[in-house]
Each structure stands twice: as C-alpha cells, then as structure tokens.
Amino acid sequence: RKEVEQDPGPFNVPEGATVAFNCTYSNSASQSFFWYRQDCRKEPKLLMSVYSSGNEDGRFTAQLNRASQYISLLIRDSKLSDSATYLCVVTLENNDMRFGAGTRLTVKP
Amino acid sequence: GAVVSQHPSRVICKSGTSVKIECRSLDFQATTMFWYRQFPKKSLMLMATSNEGSKATYEQGVEKDKFLINHASLTLSTLTVTSAHPEDSSFYICSATLALTQYFGPGTRLTVL
C-alpha cells in the first residue's frame, strides 16, 4: 500500500465548478499535512497547510481527519488558472516528507 | 517566502559524462536539504537527504556512488550525477526546510543523450 494515496484524476471541470480532492495516508504517526500545487514542468509550490480544525484560504478549503487518516481539498468557483496538479504531502515523525502521486485538474472555459 | 535556487535549470549531456546540480537557499540557512527526482506524470520521489557537514542519507534503491551529494555549507548542496545514462534523464528538484515548511527549487531538467 502506498504511504500517500490520492484520487487518480484527471479532473476536467468547467469554470465556476466546485471540485474536491481526497487523499489518504497510511502512517498514523504522521505529523504535518500539506497541499502543494505543481504546474507543468515546474516545482511544487505550497498551496496550504492542513489542520485538524480545517482551514480556508479564499476559494480553497482543506480538511484533515486524523481518525480516518484522510485529507481533503475543496476548490470553489474554479478558475482557468487553477489548472495544475495538486499534490498531497505528509510529513512523518522523522520529518521525512511523503508525496502523493498528484491529481491533475483541468478547468475549461 | 523563502527562496531556493537551482543551477542549471536545464542541461543536456552525453552518456558517460558527469553533471553537477547546485541547490542554494538564498535567504536562510538550511542544515538539511532534500533531493528529489520526478519522472513525467509521476510524483516526486525522494532520493536523499543532504546534511550539512556530514554524509547524505540515501533512500533505498538510490546508488550513492552514482548520485554524489555534498553539503559543504549551510546554503549550498550539490548533486552530481556520475557517468550519466539516458535512464537518468529526469527532472531533479531540491528543497530546504524553513519553519516546518518545504521550499522547493525550480528544478533542473537533465537530458542524457
């Protein structure tokens, strides 16, 4: 079983749609959780950290369920510029990071 | 936010040659840096953890004699791909940690002919 698993995608949605990505992790001792965005042929960039209480940043909402070892990212009112690959990232207790395979999102006009 | 640079951004080399990639933290000191490689349409795979002043820690399956890592200062780590082969062609990305957040370099695309 992979340490971090994500929806395989790709997700193709129209502008304005709401889209949700899911991620599960296998190591119950994982410490920190993040969503990164990666544009084609570019490095990953931090989108947002994920907290147990849930957190929101504009159109983006991230949630963490430690009991279920599940992380989600919700994007509301999708924009064309949201098209990218979204990586679920987990930090283990030794500070090693584990990446999901990524979910590709394409927002179409 | 913190900035991490990589050089070169793109390199093409012949089989059998060695290629050195530099990773620098521009406005902070990083005792630990990480090296990843990414194949097309795949996620990042951690290759090794670079520790300033000591030996790097390699992930299982990564040949330490092929991928030489040197972390000579708190702002510079280098990855040298020795005797490169076409299968080493990939996107190599480094990162450094600041306040529990990973900041990634822009990546180096290596093509081995």
Describe the structure concisely.
Chain A is 0% helix and 53% strand. With 109 residues, chain A is mostly beta strands.
How would you characterize this protein structure?
The complex is a heterodimer of chains A (109) and B (113). Chain A has 109 residues and is an all-beta fold. Chain A has strands at residues 4-6, 11-14, 19-25, 32-38, 45-49, 55-57, 60-65, 70-75, 84-91, 97-99, 103-108. In chain A, strand 7 and strand 8 form a beta hairpin. Chain A starts with a strand and ends with a strand. The mean pLDDT of chain A is 91. Chain B starts with a strand and ends with a strand. Chain B has strands at 4-7, 10-13, 19-25, 32-38, 45-51, 57-58, 67-73, 76-81, 90-98, 101-104, 108-112. By secondary structure, chain B is mainly beta. In chain B, strand 7 (67-73) and strand 8 (76-81) form a beta hairpin. Chains A and B meet through strand 5 and strand 9 of A and strand 5, strand 9 and strand 10 of B.
Shape of chain B: globular
Strand tally of chain A is 11
**Count of helical segments of chain A?**
0
The helix content of chain A, as a percent range, equals: under 10%
Report Rg of chain B.
13 Å
Specify the helix fraction band of chain B. under 10%
Tally of DSSP β-strands of chain B: 11
Largest interface: A-B, 19 and 20 residues
- Main β-sheet of chain B, in a few words? 7 strands, mixed
Low-confidence stretches of chain B: none
- N-to-C SSE string of chain A, H for helix and E for strand: EEEEEEEEEEE
Strand content of chain B: over 45%
Contiguous uncertain segments of 5+ residues of chain A: none
Which word captures the global form of chain A?
Answer: globular
The overall pLDDT of chain B, averaged over residues, is 90
Radius of gyration of chain A, in angstroms, nearest whole number: 13 Å
**% residues in beta strands of chain A:** over 45%
Summed up, the helix count of chain B is 0
For the terminal residues of chain A, how far apart are their CA atoms? 37 Å
